[in-house]
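Q: Convert this sequence to structure tokens.
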Amino acid sequence: MFFGEKPQIIGAYNTPFDFKFMAALYQRQEKAFAPVCQFDVLDMARDLVKDVTNHKLETVAAHYGIQGDNFHSAEFDTDCAVNLFKTFLKEYTANAAAPADDSASDKAKPAITSITLFDKSATLRRIYVNTDMGTLFFDLVKKVWASKDAKMETFDMNFLEKEAWKCVGAADQTAFENFKGNWTAAA
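A:
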């Protein structure tokens, strides 16, 4: 095994996708794929990159000036994810050292009234988040937030996402994506 029998730290861009392949590879060797620590560069991108249309690797890479015509090749995508990871680490370090920025407070922090899973087919799966300022949804297939009738650019999306997680009892993005059913705010 090129990662060894017990990988320590493993990262990827969209770990749930890549880790399925890794788990299958290990299973073929009659081993368990259970890294001690894992991180998802996609989660970092969602946290740090707010002014892009989506968080696909190619889109985020272009935002940082990383160009290429070999996207979706394992080697290029790996190099790109490593470069983004290094960039994001620098941003996190700079943000931790910088004084608190209250600019996000200028954005709306709507109250969530209900959350509903819409699971129509393998290609149409969404978690709708109804607020007092309109309806947004998290597209479970594309892994992006979108709006049904709300002006997303006016929302503090970091706040809204964390609030949605709290409402359904999710500790993180992965747990939120596994939400089933309905949630309604207490009257």
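The beta strands are 9-12, 37-40, 112-121, 124-131, 134-139, 144-147, 182-184.
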